[in-house]
Amino acid sequence: MGHAVFRQQNGLMAVGIVTACGLITPEQLQGVAELAEPLGIAGFKLSTRQTLIAILPEEKVPNLQAEVDKLGLRIGSFGEVVRNVKACCGTSGFCVRSQADAHHLGLRLQDRFMNEPVPKDFKISVAGCQRGCTDPFCADFGCMGNPARVRGGFDVIIGGRGGSRRPRHGQRILESVSPDTVERVLAYVLDRYRELGQPHERLCHTIDRVGLDAFIPPRELVKGEEEAAAGQEGGAPVDMDFLNFAASER
Q1: Tens-digit pLDDT profile for residues 48-59
Q2: Nearest to 142 by CA among 166, 130, 217
């Protein structure tokens, strides 16, 4: 694993600063701005992965790393690891279309899984509704808000790949499951990926080689979804057929 620090064509360095899935407090924003002059930062840019990238001289990079730690931020990682989570601000306080709390789920997954080793860099995207602003179908592991069975539930999609000359949409393996189940399923998928994936093999290629069924979680991993759906106001008992959702989609 290496830090997200890359030399630019003009000789300056680009340093990726990980945010809370795209949200920055006023104090953090002010603190970062105050670093610009003493560290010779030429500018900042926002990446598609919701990192804040600082462009500065190479000799100032260690100083930047030390200062962002004090602000409660951190330098991103690069290489064969789980990357920072890309999540929309889909909560009742930030988005009128939110159907599930995407932002807090994204933070939860980022805090637990970021920097875990994997065969090839692994990207996670979380969206709070079916608009999918964070492109969950283009991530190795995507979540998309869908309250059809569980209020605040998410569909789970795996095996997508964006940012490539051969982009691919992932495949939906679960429909409308709770955030707790999403976290358990992600842990399961990562374990299976480490077990079955070859070195430097992207998840979509592992799925091509061994089949999607190797990544479908066992029923006991998602037990409780039926009870959760039945217990909701106005809800009705549902069966566990959503475990076969992926097979019906193919």
Answers
A1: 999 999 999 999
A2: 130
